[in-house]
Amino acid sequence: MNRVEREAAVRRIMDRATPRVPPDLYADVVRRGTRAVHRRRLARRLMWLAVWAAAVALLVWALTARPWVEPPSQTTPPLTDW
Description:
Layout: H1 3-15, H2 25-65
């Protein structure tokens, strides 16, 4: 199909009458869109709640375990000069 034929095909498609949209389609689309927005908002809130809980858990662990402090030695140093 060359360029002229393609242009003619596109013109034929565009000259056709536009198809009728069912009257209840708009209400259905709005309802589904509203549900999608609510789900997305809920997912975002749950994500932030999980991030906040992880940060609190890390803070509590760090304050109780104190990983920056050197652990005590498990063995005693050798006795010399006794």
